[in-house]
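Minutes, project check-in
Item: structure for the 207-residue chain
Input as provided by the requester:
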Amino acid sequence: MSARARWGGTGFEAVMLEAGTQVAGTSLNPVGTPAWQLGQPHAFRLFWDWTVGTLTWQIDFNRDNSFGTGETASFARVARIGTSFSYILLTANSRTSGVNSNAIDISNLRINGTNLGSFTADSLSPSIGQFFEPDPLGPRFRSIEILGDLVFRNTGGNGAFQSERPRMQIDFLGIEPVPEPASWVMLLTGFGAVGAALRRSRKAAAV
């Protein structure tokens, strides 16, 4: 499962994907005010509730310190109740072209309450990738809440895009199927609350 935010020049969008195919989404800020502002931080929240199998993707595009109507894309998969994940992949791509330059800043990134810092994709590093795993290894991510701030910036020229619009994407990877009923007791007593912490990082091309 994935969640993506993109800057399209004439509007912004937040969508969710399943195996690379868009399954839910909303076009943010195509009209009206207050509008999404380039160069300004917009809070985002991605929440996977493993107990009921729902994924919620929210962006505070009008910067009113809340996630209101029109700012939420929700996706429910009943078959996924109880699913957990091995790790999380955060990617960003600024899609710069020639003298034109765009940037994406991701700041105050927090996974299940753990602050994991800030990241930038710009003309110097147009594509970034960061993996996160539970610490210690062994327990998996169950219910997951990811919070942070997202800024799109035009840093040079007219900000023309190369092939694809600038974007940030979060992927939940390493799916574990729903356990057999006999396994529930062992899992629930053996695993406590999973605190998210940074285990390793490496560059990865944006998908």
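Outcome recorded: The chain is about 5% helix and 50% strand.
No further action items on this chain.
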